[in-house]
Structures are given as structure tokens and as C-alpha cells.
Amino acid sequence: MSDLRAPEHQVAGHRAAPDKLGPLVDGAGLFYKPLQALDRGEQELAFYTAFSAHPDVPPRIRDAFFPRFHGTRLLPTAASPGESHPHLILDDILKGLAAPSVTDIKIGACTWPPRAPEPYVEKCLAKDRGSTSVLLGFRVSGVMVSDPSGVVWRPDRSELKGTDIPGVRRMLRRYVSSVGGEDCALAAAVYGGEGGVLAQLRELKAWFEVQTLFHFYSASVLLSYDANAVTAPGGAPRVKLVDFAHVVESEGVIDHNFLGGLCSLIKFIDDIVSSDKAPPVQS
Amino acid sequence: MSDLRAPEHQVAGHRAAPDKLGPLVDGAGLFYKPLQALDRGEQELAFYTAFSAHPDVPPRIRDAFFPRFHGTRLLPTAASPGESHPHLILDDILKGLAAPSVTDIKIGACTWPPRAPEPYVEKCLAKDRGSTSVLLGFRVSGVMVSDPSGVVWRPDRSELKGTDIPGVRRMLRRYVSSVGGEDCALAAAVYGGEGGVLAQLRELKAWFEVQTLFHFYSASVLLSYDANAVTAPGGAPRVKLVDFAHVVESEGVIDHNFLGGLCSLIKFIDDIVSSDKAPPVQS
């Protein structure tokens, strides 16, 4: 157990600390996510269980865009010595990235399942209207840029919360820029190209246009890359879906809320790649 | 003026009556829509004016999917003798259909512009949650089937309001079925095929994936066809957008709300065409 530790590169969600529960990594490729309180942990476990075994999920989609699920495990918690807590065992989606730059983007104008209890709906709706979710179809929940020396940019939650549409555009530009700048030096390598973020998001979109299995309320697209590896073979940026505590079964209907937000993100990122290609304005 | 009359085949919205304002047609191809109360009429006029002249709207999209706009005209009103009321002059999108069958589908999980006043948002949100809009990404606002003898099916508003997802599926099946049945006899001709509803909706979708000019809150897709002409040359079903009182300018973002609902409608109709193609289950 001694090799389990809090991940260094988490950008959103609950963090582990000596006095509270948080995710752990084993350094060998596994990620342990504590089951969340209320019924969220059970719901996320139910999703992973159903999704992993579902015959109608294309294996390519499952392998490319979701962390692999390896069951659950009881782990002792530093917060309550002598007690243990169930954790989901998942692939560590940042495995092998020496200096990961990560963005967590919560997809959908609406983050509340339609049949959720009223107080929860109201809380989510206020957040959706108070952030860019309703206007933009997504919001940035976390962003972090690293270089070999460590994390070089990680805006805090209050900064993210107050972000408007131009602010999101700046963040998604800065995420692929030289340290401290907004030059989009890595836009073509990270967002563009054959194995880039855009190509992967478009493959995911094609599945969302037809899948009527699940509706992914409040789930995120997590982007990651290593600036020193992204132009090398095998260094392609990664696109994964995470956070499934509010996934519900569909009723024979596509997840139009997630799909709409995903299309908005695609257009937004495509605009960054395109403007990056345009020759700089001469003064 | 004497040739103006209330249209026979309206399926949703305000109807003209001796004591109230409603749209009029001239029988020669023009449709007169009274400017709505509050600022809705002015907003719809502003949209048509901006949209008609906008250099970034592809002419093919404007011609295929929108009623042509011919300015405004003051018309005397039966409701208030001696007074006149401004009307939008539009193409009558049902022109030439001897026995039109019409469906009005309000697109989008969310029908309220994000910056609308609070009481209006709350009213719309209640309707969106109380109808299929939130779950399905659209709702049927009106449906009508005609044959040469006249209207043979037109559920009233209370019936439409109480409709759930299976109910919407039944309506969209019945809309292309023999009178009184649910045999989908016309599904291939109306929904399928080269010039059919699905092909047209997909063309519209491709534009919504890239257009960042307008967000079409509370607008409808209006489908129409004539059962006796739909399989003949020139009898292709029609797909038009209508009702623009709540269109707002975009902020460099696609209309993810409309697009998501449109994709949901496409999948829903595609399922009807596909199930219609499958051999019937033998008992």
C-alpha cells in the first residue's frame, strides 16, 4: 500500500489530503478513485459496471475514450485511521506523461439529469447559468500546464468560475502555448493533425450522434499531453471522458445535451487551430 | 384586401379569428404574420431583416430552409375596425400543397435565451421540463394530417402538451401513415430518400455545426407534404424554419442547443425509417 500517493497532476474534483479522501495513483498505471458520498459513488460504480460489459458499446470507443475499469478495492484512509473506504480501480489516464498538461472540460449546457431531485436541479442550474455552460455548451473545470520543472500554470477555482466566453478562448489558447504566452505554438500538434484532439473529438461525436445507451450529465472531457513528447511517435494527445456520477440510462434518445456541447467545443477548438494557421497581422 | 383570409392549415401558434389577430394568406403565395405583442414582433422583424441581408448566410440555406421575407405591411384588423396592425410579409411555405400534412417541431432542450428576463426564463423552463423538450431536445407543437376531403387528424393542444417520448414517436409515425393507422406507409417517401426530410435535416445540421451568427431559441422546424404529390416529381416534402421572435445574436459560438435538438430529431426520424424497412415480426 505504501506506493499509493495522491496524483500530482489533478486539475479538478476532490483532492486527497491528510484529513480527507481523494484519488490515489500507484505509479504503475492504476488510479484509485474513492466512491463519492450520497449515492454518487454507487451511481458511478453502476455506470462503469454496465458500460464495461455493454455489448452495444463499440470496443474502439471504450478503449480510446474511457479509462479502463478494473473493479473496486477497499483501501485504508488516512482521514479515518483503522477504517477503509471503497475505491474504483481505473487506468491512470496520465500514465507515462512526464510533464502532463491537462484540461478538464465539463460538457453540456445542462449538468442536471432531468429526473434529479429539485434541490439538486436548482443548484446545478444556477451553476450552469452562472458559468459558460448555458451559453457555450461547456465550461472549463480545470486547466494546468506543466514543463519538466513542474506545474507552470494552474488557475484556481475562483478564477475558473468567473470566466466568460473570451476567457475560455484565452485558456484554450494558453493551454497549447509556450509558457506564459498565448502564441499557440503547440496548437497544430495538440489540437490539429491526424491523431490530434480535434480528430479524436470528431470520432467521439460520431458515436454520440447514434448512441442511445447513456446520457452523460456533468461528465468531462479530459485532455492531456506532454509538451516534450507530443510531436514524437506515440506522444499523441489524449482525450478521455471522466466523471460518471450523474450518468443516466437513455430512453431511446441520443444525448443531445452532451452532443451539442461537444460540437460547440469542436468548433471552438477548430477556430483556434484555424486562426493559428492564418498569417499574423502585419502592422 | 378582400382576398386575404386565415390559412386553413395552421398547426401551431395564434390563429386569426373575428375577434383577434392571426396570420393571413393571399392565396397567391404570400403569408402575412402580425407582429407579436411585447417586443417579440420587433425582434422577429429585426431577425428577418438581418438574416435576409447577411453576407455570411449561404444563399442555398436561406432559400431552402427559410421563408423568404418581403418586408412589412400595415393591414386593417377585423378585431379593431378602423385600426391597422403591422404584418411581416413572408412566403407562404404551404403554397401549392392541395392537401398539406404539417408538423411543427419546436427545437432545443432550452427555449429561453440565456439573457432573457427571469420571469420569462422560469416560464419557459417549466414548459421545457414539463414537455419532452428537456428529455428529447424537441417537442411537437402541432401536427395535422390532411387528405383531399380536408383535415383528418389534428390533436389539440392539451393532447400535445401531455405527450411523452413514446407519444412523440407515435405522432411522427402517424404523420406518415395511412389515415387512422400507424403503418408508416409514406415513411420512405416523406422521411427517407434523396430529397426527403432526413436528407434536408442533415443539410441543415451541417450548417448548424459551423454557423456562429444566430441562436434560434424557441424556433420550429415545420415539415409539410401533400400525400398525393409526395412521390411525384416536384412533390418533395418541405423543411422550413419558422418563428424567430426569440432569436439572438451569437457570441462566436455555435447554437449547440438547436444543433443538439436537431441531431436528436434526425436520429428519432431515422429510427422510424429504419424500423419501417425491417421485415415485420412474424408471430
UniProtKB/TrEMBL annotation, chains A, B:
Its EC number is 2.7.1.140, 2.7.1.151. Inositol phosphate kinase with a broad substrate specificity. It is an enzyme of class 2 (transferase). Belongs to the inositol phosphokinase (IPK) family. GO terms for molecular function: ATP binding; inositol tetrakisphosphate kinase activity; inositol-1,4,5-trisphosphate 3-kinase activity. It comes from the Eukaryota. Coiled coil: none annotated. One of its GO terms (cellular component) is cytoplasm. GO terms for biological process: inositol phosphate biosynthetic process. It comes from Triticum urartu (Red wild einkorn). This is Inositol polyphosphate multikinase. Keywords: ATP-binding, Kinase, Nucleotide-binding, Transferase. It catalyses: 1D-myo-inositol 1,3,4,6-tetrakisphosphate + ATP = 1D-myo-inositol 1,3,4,5,6-pentakisphosphate + ADP + H(+); 1D-myo-inositol 1,4,5-trisphosphate + 2 ATP = 1D-myo-inositol 1,3,4,5,6-pentakisphosphate + 2 ADP + 2 H(+).
